[in-house]
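2.7 Reproducibility. Because tokenized structures are sensitive to small changes in the input, we list the exact sequence used for Isocitrate/isopropylmalate dehydrogenase family protein, including any N-terminal residues retained from the expression construct. No trimming or masking was applied before prediction.
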Amino acid sequence: MAQTFEIAVFEGDGIGPEIMGPTVKILRQMSDASDRYDLQFVDAPAGAAHYAATGQAFPDASMETARSADAILLSAMGLPDVRYPDGTEISPQIDLRKALVLFAGVRPVTVKAGQPTPLSMPEGKEIDFVLIRESTEGLFFSQGRGDVTENEARETLLITRDISEKLFQFAFHLARGRKRTGRGPGKVTCVDKANVFRAFAFFRDIFDAEAAENPDIKADHAYVDATALWMVQRPWDFDVMVTENMFGDILSDLGAGLMGGLGLAPSADIGLDHAVFQPCHGSAPDIVGQGIANPFAMILSAAMMLDWLGIRHSNAALVADGTRLREAVEGIVADGQVLTRDLGGSASTTTAADAVFDMLFVT
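Resulting structure tokens (single pass, no recycling of outputs):
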């Protein structure tokens, strides 16, 4: 009997609707072809364009849709010329992270054999690691509320035991799952700056306590500056990395660079009861309507959603389809025949998305 899942869909701003449309088309076809699950999509208006039109950036009804959904699929959000009166950006994705306590920002980095990358890859090496960014605290905690005077500015770094314990439990669980499926050796690296900041020494102590509870998973530490170096020199050595919010924000963009750009960078923000799946890139208003936006990060984010739903609800068909969808995109990118402009090709948004659709349902 098929399990039914409600997906809240935030189309986003700028190129958001252009990449969400073909992604939902693929998901609908996968759902229609399965007798094990049924996906129902519910639109949730929000974002900068919605604010410009209505004066509301995130209607209460859309938040309620997100809260009641089984998963949230969110496209690129925000527009540089549409802001709140105080000048801050309109970012419903950050509102969701805080409201739903989505503490684990999951940023996979994958470079398969044959895939273009700025690195010079040794023969036989591939990159397959996951960066987990704490998404509710850290240096983002005082966002928009920092103390600024004529002569100095201060921001508050917050790290709590409660969120850190949940974050590290998630990291070790993920590493164990990756090891079970042959995608990693079962290792978690805590990335911090414990040699300088007491807050990060606190962070590391909590990590070590969790590591002691998971003796089957290897645990180690790395300072964030050294990690940035090693991500360029030997990224294939990493499995699961876990770090503070700001460090994770920076390192995840470096990870996207290893893959060839943000157009290949999916993400998830996951809590105990809710999860949001969205591409890492922005709304790119400079290319809206030109049909050249890269849909791959959005589609890969949808693959992460299927995998998460399948694991959470013990639905093997969802997990299998999440893997099929991810591998379809990876295969197309590695083949190099259908690449969008940001990846050095000339394929349109439609052509790129259709290539994924055809690989899944035609070939």
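Residues 161-180 form the longest helix (20 residues).
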